[in-house]
Amino acid sequence: MAARFAEQIEHCHTTEDLANLRRDFALFYGEKVAAMKNGKYSMQMRSVVFYIHDHMAENIRLSDIAEILSVSTGALSRRINREYGDSFSALVNNLRIQRACQYLNLAIPVSAVAERVGYKSSSQFCRHFRGIKKMTPTEWREQNHIDIPQAES
């Protein structure tokens, strides 16, 4: 985890980049702590959740996680279904939307949130967000009283 963030620090060119990275690290660390405290999941399932959190902005594939954990894709899929109660893709989307809500709390533009949590487009992100939260990201912000700073003219 530290090596990944150290590498990202090297690529920061502005104080805004560093501030965003600091926020990302705080969110990431909080998710790790919460996942470790969640005793209802097996260690293998927690490893799946950790992997998803670590690779949130990437294309996450069940086969990649199964290979890392040295289990078959089918066995891992069944475990996820048994412990989580839904499919792997539903787990990924729910974790992405949870993190998106954290970013939306920080008044990050919706398009940037979509990219940070691994959606290829804002429209795909908004569609999944609405499917899970039953409202758009903008409506969610309004309901949670999150103000977006306006750019000065």
Descriptive account of the structure:
The chain is mostly helical and 153 residues long. It has one domain (24-143): Homeodomain-like (Arc Repressor Mutant, subunit A), CATH 1.10.10. It is 71% helix and 0% strand. The chain is built from nine helices and no strands. The longest helix has 23 residues, at 15-37. It starts with a helix and ends in a 10-residue tail after the last helix. The model has no long low-confidence stretch (mean pLDDT 84).
The CATH architecture comes to Orthogonal Bundle
The CATH homologous superfamily name equals Homeodomain-like
The N- to C-terminal Cα distance equals 40 Å
Global geometry: globular
CATH level 1 name: Mainly Alpha
Radius of gyration: 17 Å
Strand content range:
under 5%
Structural class: mainly alpha
Oligomeric organization of the protein chains: single chain
Return the CATH topology: Arc Repressor Mutant, subunit A
Topology, number of strands: 0
Task: Outline the fold blueprint.
Elements: H1 2-10, H2 15-37, H3 43-54, H4 62-69, H5 73-84, H6 88-105, H7 110-116, H8 122-133, H9 137-143
Helix pairs in contact: 2-3, 4-5, 7-8
How would you summarize this macromolecular structure in one to three sentences?
By secondary structure, the chain is mostly helical. It has helices at residues 2-10, 15-37, 43-54, 62-69, 73-84, 88-105, 110-116, 122-133, 137-143.
